Amino acid sequence: MANKNPKPPPSRGIPSKEAMWLPPHDGKIINAKGGLSKEIIWDIEDVIDFVFPKIYQPKYYEIALSFIKFLFEEGKVDHFKISKFLKDNNYSRATLENKIIPKIVRFGLVKREREQSMKGKSRYLILSDSLTYATYLERISHAWNMLVLTARQKRKGKE
After folding, report:
1. CA spacing 20 to 30 A to 57: which of 15, 80, 104, 107?
2. Mapping DSSP to helix (H, G, I), strand (E, B) and coil, where does residue 18 land?
3. What tens digit of pLDDT does each residue of 30-79 get?
4. Residue extents of the structural domains in the chain
5. Rounded to whole angstroms, how far apart are CA atoms 152 and 24?
6. CATH architecture of 16-130
7. CA distance 130 to 22
8. Which residues contact 61 (CB under 8 A, 6 or more apart)?
9. Sorting pLDDT into bands at 50, 70 and 90, what band is 136?
10. For residues 44 and 65, what is the distance between their CA atoms, to the nearest angstrom?
């Protein structure tokens, strides 16, 4: 006899490694950034705050912000430059490599490549800036824009 109404397993919500924080669009946090006006430029701090919210993940936010600024200055970074960055800023390698880099790569803020080592089989990490994040969010917003405009047009046709 099969269970006709199976109970789904308990959920702990969206995994933080896949989550992007979106505070209320009309709230004080967005207003502090300058609001949604396209004439107001958001800084790196404002953008990183959506990936690693400062109020919930202050240390990750600090490390990610510092790393992205470093990456913008350097253009491309390899494992030598990453080691120097960690040493200069006294950040944990494990935190950067296991929490920060995977999430900013997954979101498309950073492009990850591998370079073949001169010795042996190891492949060194190379990171560079990426526009995938912007493209991804533009695609979502464009789809929503088209859906709303189409629905409005269909309603006008019925009137």
Report:
1. 80
2. helix
3. 899 888 888 999 999 999 999 999 999 999 999 999 999 999 999 999 98
4. 16-130
5. 24
6. Orthogonal Bundle (1.10)
7. 21
8. 48, 49, 52, 53, 54
9. very high
10. 7
